[in-house]
Design goal:
By secondary structure, the chain is α/β, with parallel strands linked by helices. The protein has one domain. It has helices spanning about 5-20, 50-65, 85-95, 115-130, 140-150, 165-175, 200-215, 230-235, 250-265; strands at about 70-75, 100-105, 180, 190-195, 220-225, 245, 270-275. Strands 3-2-1-4-5-6-7 form a 7-stranded mixed β-sheet, sandwiched between helices. Helix 3 (about 85-95) packs across helix 9 and helix 5 crosses helix 7 (about 200-215). The radius of gyration is 21 Å and the shape is globular. The chain starts with a helix and ends in an 11-residue tail after the last strand.
Length: about 280
């Protein structure tokens, strides 16, 4: 939760003005000659191209205000996720005080429409082995999303132990080459940050993200600006339980994603970022 709202909102407004190139007209940035000059000279000082991102990175610490202090976060990547963005997001999570429990990679087979039979069969068989399985009646992709949630997340307020169900799901998904799991069976996390990559079948993305959201305290999905899959999550109502943020290729978008994690601790859902219907930054 961002306590210094009186500071954060003006800073966000300035950042957005700079990012969208709003002209700072008449005032101290407009320079004219004397009244006697026949042709007044107007000088407009535009910000440097990289200034909005530099500005966002500079003020990130104050905006976070340690909002993730001691809060565990799991990072899940979709196929095609940018490695540099993964590293930058990890840095921002730590800057907000978050504790990264592990990075998990969803593999191509899990989201490949041609592998639906494999995903469905494995999900049904695995669900029968668990003490606490998925929601009754869940279809293929919401079910596999809930199973991924068992592997990486929990609905509580602290990191969770890797119990028998967690270990069983991790081993099964890894053996089927659907999910890459960190070594050592790390604890599960209440908060999950999902980085999208290559375009996905929208129904598959909807199911997996909705299922993951059902098994975590808070989930934030982040993608590049105007990402079609991310926009589809909003259009299909997935953002009722999962927060989305676009603009992951920019520092401003990454800062917004981490602010989304801070917010997700107490408030689920919403569409934010450069194209978000609920505003550019998830504050409060």
């Amino acid at each position: 939760m961002i306590r210094h709202r009186s500071y954060a909102v003006p800073v966000t407004a300035v950042l957005l003005a700079l990012a969208t190139g709003v002209a700072l007209g008449a005032g101290p940035l407009t320079d004219t000659r004397s009244d006697a000059s026949p042709q007044p000279r107007i000088v407009t000082r535009a910000p440097a191209n990289g200034y909005p991102d530099t500005f966002a990175a500079s003020v990130a610490g104050r905006l976070y205000d340690h909002g993730l202090s001691r809060r565990p976060v799991a990072l899940v990547t979709m196929p095609g996720a940018d490695a540099a963005t993964v590293s930058a997001l990890v840095t921002q999570v730590k800057a907000a005080g978050g504790q990264l429990t592990g990075t998990y990679a969803i593999q191509g087979q899990l989201v490949d429409p041609e592998q639906k039979s494999l995903v469905d069969t494995l999900g049904i068989q695995l669900d029968k082995q668990l003490k606490h399985g998925t929601e009754p009646g869940a279809s293929t992709y919401p079910r596999i999303g809930q199973l991924v949630a068992i592997a990486v997340a929990n609905r509580g307020a602290a990191a969770g132990a890797a119990d028998d169900d967690v270990v069983a799901v991790r081993q099964s998904l890894a053996a089927a080459k659907l999910l890459t799991v960190p070594a050592g069976h790390p604890q599960t996390a209440p908060l999950v940050l999902v980085l999208l990559g290559s375009p996905l079948d929208q129904a598959i993305a909807d199911g997996v993200l909705a299922g993951l959201g059902a098994g975590a305290r808070g989930v934030v999905a982040v993608a590049p600006t105007k990402d079609a899959t991310l926009a589809g999550l909003e259009a299909d109502g997935v953002t009722k339980g999962v927060t989305t943020v676009d603009g992951s290729e920019t520092d401003a978008g990454r800062v917004a994603a981490v602010l989304g994690l801070v917010r997700a601790w107490s408030t689920r859902g919403g569409a934010f970022g450069a194209s978000g219907a609920d505003g550019p930054v998830p504050l409060g």
